[in-house]
Specification:
11 strands, alpha+beta, globular, Phosphatase 2c, domain 1, 6-stranded antiparallel β-sheet
């Protein structure tokens, strides 16, 4: 398995509140997009990623349970840190991750970052935990309308908001040669899923694909931090 990831500040933000982790030898991939003033977003995303990483010391026996437990531990860590440091009150973060095992992978997800599995066709492995995502899932708006919805940035789920975080944990089958992409909304805000699938299929090497996607974001103004991980399965 090969993987490549990057995180960039973008053109309009003064700091980078995204964080990511990619361990191709263990098949662990994580992205997080923090939120909160006074560097709270940076602290939340980094703390969540570190906590999840540490919680996956042994995930092979029961990967779904291991993923859910690790993310719930991250939620508790963010809440505890925010309560202990007044300047960090209200901080939170999205978190989208995958652990890859022979023949299948398990995603853990909360927020509006995304995971995609891309081969001859592409499919999204995660749902968007935002107001617009909720409306889309209910069939009240189209995907095109969701991308422009005025409440698309209002999250309905995130880490650090409530002690009983509702985490989405799912198992997916995969085939050799497919590619797994994890990203924050800095990519999906300005690049469509169809464009992502096309670039990943046509760009060749995974580094070329990631660099091409990030270049597209910057060509379109890069209004947010952007983080992308791409793994060749």
């Amino acid at each position: 398995m090969k993987a490549y990831g990057v995180s960039r500040r973008g053109l309009l933000r003064t700091n980078n509140e995204d964080c990511f982790y990619a361990d191709e030898s263990r098949g662990i991939f994580i992205v997080a997009d923090g939120m909160g003033g006074h560097a709270g977003g940076e602290v939340a995303s980094r703390l969540a990623v570190e906590t999840v990483k540490e919680g996956l010391a042994d995930f092979h026996r029961d990967p779904e349970r291991a993923v859910e437990t690790a993310i719930m531990s991250a939620n508790a860590a963010v809440l505890t840190k925010a309560a202990a440091v007044p300047a960090l009150a209200g901080m939170g973060t999205t978190l989208t991750m995958a652990v890859v095992l022979p023949g299948f992978l398990v995603t853990g997800h909360i927020g509006d970052s995304q995971a995609y599995l891309i081969g001859s066709e592409g499919r999204c492995l995660t749902s968007d935990h935002s107001v617009s995502g909720m409306l889309l899932a209910a069939g009240k708006i189209t995907a095109a309308e969701a991308r422009l919805h005025p409440q698309r940035h209002i999250l309905t789920r995130a880490l650090g908001i409530d002690e009983h975080a509702e985490v989405e944990v799912l198992r997916h089958s995969w085939s050799p040669g497919q590619r797994l992409l994890l990203c924050t909304d800095g990519l999906t805000e300005v690049v469509t899923a169809r464009e992502i699938f096309s670039v990943v299929r046509e760009a060749g090497a995974i580094k070329n694909a990631v660099d091409a996607l990030v270049d597209m974001v910057y060509q379109r103004g890069a209004p947010d931090n952007v983080t992308v991980i791409l793994a060749e399965l």
